[in-house]
């Protein structure tokens, strides 16, 4: 299945919104490895959910493709659960619930296909499990489960989402699906969503201790909150968002001063950033920057939504 391509992150581009998402879907490319190459091969869009879903859903992400040769897409996952509806060629439609991915996600796109994905805000999926849902957010971390295993009464939803030729009808089907699940009031999830947003948007938060101090809670309480609602630790969220920033900088500026950026992102030194970047993306940041510079014909201000 294509991974959660609905990249998110701090941005000054149009459409940047806070936890309530009032500004609509963002147009940055954070998390997508070589976004320019991806967008040259597939039709990629982001769409906003219905108003009652905005506090919980980052955006919907839609991809269609018709390829003459296979293409490998890669994503550095966000701390978000995704529900992914997908159809390949003439195969029957299907759907999966993808928990937070812990490593680089790669998938091969070939022939024709269509995907309609829901990217939840970090912590935003848990309120939808309170009704007919089975399992928990931490149970999903690093895993993908067929939609009927999580929502047994919703086995007919993939066809309803993927069948319409009209894109607006597909978005409406996603809204209907999610609104039928709830969401339930969940103060813990709301708190986790707010704190994850702080991590994403405030570069000064580079340590869990700082976030706990700002919130007036213990580090242990913060760790329990993130584990239960987001599925990963607050430290993991901090580091992942900083890798996303490094990816974006590398794609935009092949001559990045990595020592300076390491300090800005809260790393102890440049070597630490290089190790994390290489372990996550598979190549050192300088090599990625050189490769991205060759194909950086896409920019958020003018690229696809």
Continuous helix count: 12
The amount of beta strand, in percent, is 15-25%
Secondary structural class = alpha+beta
Rounded radius of gyration (Å): 19 Å
Element-by-element helix/strand order? HEEEEEEEHEHHHHHHHHHH
Mean pLDDT, to the nearest integer, reads: 85
Main CATH class of the largest domain:
Mainly Beta
Q: How many strand units?
A: 8
User: What is the approximate shape?
Assistant: globular
* Poorly predicted sequence stretches spanning 5 or more consecutive residues: 6-18, 294-305
Task: Please tell me about this protein's structure.
The two termini are 21 Å apart. The chain has helices at 35-41, 137-140, 147-150, 157-162, 167-179, 187-201, 208-215, 219-229, 234-252, 258-264, 270-281, 285-294, and strands at 43-47, 57-66, 71-75, 82-88, 94-98, 105-109, 112-120, 144-146. It contains twelve helices and eight strands. It is 38% helix and 16% strand. The model is unreliable at 6-18 and 294-305 (pLDDT under 50). It is α+β, with helices and mostly antiparallel strands and 305 residues long. A hairpin with a 5-residue loop joins strand 4 and strand 5. The protein has a six-stranded antiparallel beta sheet, with helices on both faces. Strands 3-6 form a two-stranded antiparallel sheet. The chain has two domains: 35-179, Immunoglobulin-like, CATH 2.60.40; 187-294, Homeodomain-like (Arc Repressor Mutant, subunit A), CATH 1.10.10.60.
């Amino acid at each position: 299945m294509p991974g959660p391509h609905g990249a998110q992150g701090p941005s000054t581009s149009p459409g940047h919104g806070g936890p309530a998402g009032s500004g609509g879907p963002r147009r940055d490319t954070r998390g997508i490895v070589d976004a320019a190459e991806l967008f040259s091969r597939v039709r990629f869009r982001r769409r906003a959910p219905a108003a009652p879903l905005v506090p919980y859903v980052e955006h919907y992400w839609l991809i269609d493709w018709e390829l003459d040769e296979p293409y490998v897409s890669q994503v550095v996952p966000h701390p978000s659960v995704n529900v992914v509806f997908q159809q390949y060629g003439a195969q029957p439609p299907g759907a999966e619930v993808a928990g937070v991915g812990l490593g680089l996600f790669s998938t091969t796109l070939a022939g024709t296909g269509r995907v309609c994905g829901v990217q939840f805000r970090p912590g935003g999926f848990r309120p939808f499990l309170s009704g007919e849902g089975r399992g928990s957010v931490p149970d999903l971390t690093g895993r993908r489960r067929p939609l009927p295993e999580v929502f047994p009464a919703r086995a007919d939803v993939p066809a309803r989402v993927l069948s319409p030729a009209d894109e607006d009808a597909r978005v409406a089907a996603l809204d209907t699906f999610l609104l039928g699940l709830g969401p339930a009031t969940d103060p813990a999830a709301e708190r986790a969503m707010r704190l994850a947003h702080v991590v994403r948007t405030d570069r000064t938060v580079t340590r869990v201790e700082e976030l706990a101090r700002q919130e007036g809670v213990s580090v242990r309480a913060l760790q329990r909150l993130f584990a239960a609602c987001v599925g990963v630790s607050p430290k993991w969220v901090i580091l992942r968002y900083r890798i996303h920033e490094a990816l974006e900088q590398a794609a935009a500026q092949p001559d990045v001063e990595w020592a300076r950026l390491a300090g800005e992102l809260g790393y102890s030194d440049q070597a630490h950033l290089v190790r994390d970047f290489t372990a996550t993306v598979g190549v050192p940041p300088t090599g990625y920057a050189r490769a991205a510079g060759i194909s950086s014909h896409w920019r958020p201000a003018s690229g696809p939504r």
